[in-house]
Amino acid sequence: MFKEKRFELIVDFVNKNGYATNETISKVLKIPFTTLRRDLNELHKKNFIVKVHGGAKTLKEKSILELNYLEKMGDNIEQKKIIAEKALLCIKPNESIFLDAGSTTYYLAKIIKKEFNNKIYTNSILHAQTLANNGIEDINILPGKLKLKTNAIVGVETIKALRKYYFDISFIGINAIDSEYNFYTTDEDESEIKKLVIQNSQFAFGLADKSKLKSKSFVKCGDKSQLAVIDEEV
Q1: Cα–Cα distance measured from residue 69 to residue 232, given in angstroms and rounded to the nearest whole number
Q2: Domain edge (last residue) among 16, 43, 60
Q3: Model confidence over 119-157: pLDDT tens digits?
Q4: pTM for the whole thing?
Q5: For the residues 169-173, what does the mean pLDDT come to?
Q6: Could you tell me if 139 and 208 lie in one domain?
Q7: What are phi and psi of 106, to 5 degrees?
Q8: Which domain holds residue 74?
Q9: Contact between residue 139 and residue 122 where contact means Cβ atoms under 8 Å apart
Q10: Phi and psi for 60 in degrees, rounded to 5?
């Protein structure tokens, strides 16, 4: 198969699906792995697709575009504050808490009470600083590499550290929720962190305003059997 034809097939397949793993692309389009890797690298450089760990995502799907965390912070502020207040009611004194990176979880970090004496873990430097400003003393920042766009700490070291911890309660940032209540994020590294936190939590809550409903991002991180959603509805 000529390279131009492969490119056309790959871009069309990725655009139709939003995201596809290398294995899926190779199997469906019958392109050898070594050839596919070279093709994806070239297509990524030419801005036809976005090459991610283990696969590729489309540039055309609005639902999977990732905003800078400062841009997200300014969206739906009142809804996020309502969600944060509802989430606060779930927290009990002396519990261990995981606070995921994200704009809605940021508003929760702003109002967690010092008097509750919680042990708080987070993969967000912004959240850690916000908690410290509130007088929270037991703040634990996970190791790893900082992803500047979302202000999230991610990577192998983050996963390794998380495997050692179990949480009484966790609050997870969500980018999208489809009609069957599957939950999505835009980044595979962040998805792995969310999955592990959910698995290692007695109770796990996803914080998401209504703009996230009936949309779909490119990496699934959980479903309704694993995660209860807190939204802004009274």
Answers
A1: 20
A2: 60
A3: 999 999 999 999 999 999 999 999 999 988 788 999 999
A4: 0.70
A5: 97
A6: yes
A7: -60, -45
A8: 69-230
A9: yes
A10: -95, -20
Over residues 55-71, the mean pLDDT reads 62
Residue 61 has pLDDT above 70, yes or no: no
Give the separation between CA 191 and CA 42, rounded to whole angstroms.
Answer: 26
CATH number at residue 77: 3.40.50.1360
Please report the DSSP string for 26-45 in residue order.
HHHHT--HHHHHHHHHHHHH
